UniProtKB/TrEMBL annotation:
TM stretches of this protein: none
Residue ranges of domain HTH gntR-type in the record: 11-79
Cofactor: pyridoxal 5'-phosphate
Family: In the C-terminal section; belongs to the class-I pyridoxal-phosphate-dependent aminotransferase family.
InterPro entries, alphabetized: Aminotransferase_I/II_large, HTH_trans_reg/aminotransferase, PyrdxlP-dep_Trfase, PyrdxlP-dep_Trfase_major, Tscrpt_reg_HTH_GntR, WH-like_DNA-bd_sf, WH_DNA-bd_sf
Gene3D superfamilies (alphabetical): Type I PLP-dependent aspartate aminotransferase-like (Major domain), Winged helix-like DNA-binding domain superfamily/Winged helix DNA-binding domain
Keywords: Aminotransferase, DNA-binding, Pyridoxal phosphate, Transcription, Transcription regulation, Transferase
PROSITE patterns documented for this protein: HTH_GNTR
Alphabetical list of CDD domains matching this protein: AAT_like (cd00609), WHTH_GntR (cd07377)
Protein name stated in the entry: GntR family transcriptional regulator
Domain of life, source organism: Bacteria
């Protein structure tokens, strides 16, 4: 029996023999129980070593394409099912769509990475990267980090809790999923408009949810029965509304009366530019009705993927039991570095520095919108956070505004996907976390040149 095998320099020789024999077997070119050439004979035919052929035959045998009979050699296995063999074709990469040379990123959720204290961070990281820290952490997270978070929340947000109430997670969506499963997939209330990633978690888990409208004081008191309400009181996402103290009290009283829990997502509370910091809803809660969500994505780096939950004491033991077999998904080394970063005072200093920087960026953005775009563009929600909403003139809808911006190297976000009920068509989100002062000025100027081209 003659077998034609062609070898090239692109892949290992044994893998090419294996692939070509497998293809011949699957395509029935080699009939069942046909004897394959001996290892030495095939090696001589291809001018290669016997061991190379042996590797190929052993791979075929391990996958069931051939079998051996002692002192007789290798034989083709009988494959009962018809099989269409897919020959690997050369993958031709798609051509990239031409992009503008310079992109100015006004997308929401970004931070100014240039302001991060890399030298301090690297020094702490090298210090924690040692043999004693190679074992995994507990599912709750490193105690020293939980201790530092509890102390920080007391000092900066007026939230009194103990380290045992703090649990470390790898991002908002993971902790929301965990809490929803812990509460037995109960019906959830979602602010409308609201955080689209929160809604995505509920949809993936097939959890029923209700859209809860906003007013000038923030999330309204729900009129529908539910077990959990998700809200962003410090800086409502995406409108920027700061929930009034009276509304916070109303919601807590509603939760007590309805036997309901509230998730307070305090995601960018550190960056407030008008007035004194507002106390957390958790600080007003004396009945264990508020579950507090915090994150390091805005204050440190989004790529760190580290967040935390503060569970009310009344739920703590049940929450522990629910998660007892889980493992932490957050790097132990990273947790220890963040703990030392807070403990040594670098975290507070970094937030103060970034608050000053973002305040300057916000001022630059407001002035640029006023100077370049003009009075017909209204800014909404500029008191805190790292983004604003821009109300567009009637002649310019959301979709057109985004397309014109992208065609000119500017990335911005749509706001309509955040709404479940009445979607606006003349608003966009401008984030100012990432772009520099110069890029903000240049970007808004460029937007004006394309958005105002048809201005009457």
């Amino acid at each position: 029996m003659e077998i034609q095998i062609l070898l090239s320099d692109n892949k290992t020789k044994y893998s090419q023999i294996y692939e070509q024999l497998k293809q011949a077997i699957l395509e029935r070119k080699l009939a069942a129980h046909t004897k394959l050439p001996s290892k030495r004979r095939l090696a001589d035919m291809l001018n290669i070593s016997v061991i190379t052929v042996q590797f190929a035959y052993e791979q075929l045998q391990s996958e069931g394409y051939c079998y051996t009979i002692e002192r007789q050699g290798y034989f083709v296995s009988e494959i009962e099912e018809e099989w269409t063999y897919q020959v690997n074709e050369k993958i031709i990469p798609l051509k990239d769509t031409p992009k503008p040379e310079q992109v100015i990123n006004f997308k929401n959720g970004q931070v100014d990475a240039a302001g991060f204290p890399y030298k301090i961070w690297n020094r702490l990281y090298r210090r924690e990267l040692m043999e004693t820290n190679v074992n995994r952490t507990t599912w709750q997270g490193e105690y020293i980090l939980r201790e530092q978070i509890a102390a920080y929340l007391q000092q900066a947000r007026g939230l009194t809790c103990v380290p045992e109430q703090v649990y470390i997670f790898s991002g908002f969506q993971q902790q929301l999923m965990n809490v929803c499963l812990f509460l037995n997939r109960c019906t959830v209330g979602m602010e409308d408009p609201g955080f689209i990633r929160a809604r995505s978690v509920l949809e993936q888990l097939h959890i029923p949810y209700h859209a809860i409208p906003l007013d000038e004081e923030g999330c309204t008191v729900p009129s529908t029965q539910m077990k959990l309400l998700y809200t962003t009181p410090a800086h409502q996402y995406p409108t920027g509304t700061i929930m009034s103290v009276s509304r916070r009290v109303e919601l807590i009283q509603w939760a007590i009366k309805q036997d309901t829990y509230i998730i307070e997502d305090d995601y960018d509370s550190e960056f407030r530019y008008k007035g004194a910091p507002i106390a957390t809803m958790s600080n007003l809660d004396s009945s264990d009705r508020v579950i507090y969500f915090g994150t390091f994505s805005k204050t440190l780096l989004p790529s760190l993927r580290m967040s935390y939950v503060v569970i009310p004491k009344s739920l703590q033991s049940d929450f522990e039991r629910f998660n007892t077999l889980h493992k932490s998904t957050v790097s132990k080394i990273d947790q220890l570095v963040v703990a030392k970063f807070i403990q040594e005072g670098h975290y507070s200093s970094h937030i103060a520095k970034m608050r000053t920087l973002y305040r300057s960026k916000r001022l630059c953005l407001m002035e640029s919108i006023n100077n370049y775009l003009g009075e017909e563009y209204e800014v909404i929600g500029d008191a805190a956070g790292l983004h604003v909403i821009v109300q567009l003139p009637k002649r310019l809808d959301e979709s057109t505004a985004i397309k014109l911006a992208r065609a000119n190297g500017i990335e911005i976000d749509a706001i309509s996907p955040m709404y479940q009920l009445h979607k606006p068509s003349h608003q966009v989100i401008l984030g100012y976390g990432e772009p520099s002062i110069g890029e903000i000025q240049r970007g808004i100027s460029l937007l004006a040149s394309v958005w105002n081209v048809n201005k009457v």
